[in-house]
Amino acid sequence: MLVGEAEHWWRGTHHMLTARGVVVDWECFRRMFLEKYFPESVRHVKEAEFMRLHQGGMTVSKYAMKFEHKLVFIRKASPRLGSVGSLRRD
């Protein structure tokens, strides 16, 4: 459930969308939320961070934790990157 500023934003956005005849489903909400709170510039930065991630001197468990943390964001905010398999570096 949204609270505070996010709730206020969604109420206004939902009202505007329904007034325009837009079907407000999960995908619509997700798209609008990401546009508002994770603009394209932030997504590009996060994608670049993900693509530059390498183990270096980190332990496997530390690297795996960082990888999984960044992957969660990438899957939610940047669906254009596709599946994990498409992110492999040879």
UniProtKB/TrEMBL annotation:
Residues 2-74 form the Retrotransposon gag domain. This is Retrotransposon gag domain-containing protein. It comes from Cajanus cajan. InterPro entries: Retrotrans_gag_dom (IPR005162). It holds the Pfam family Retrotrans_gag.
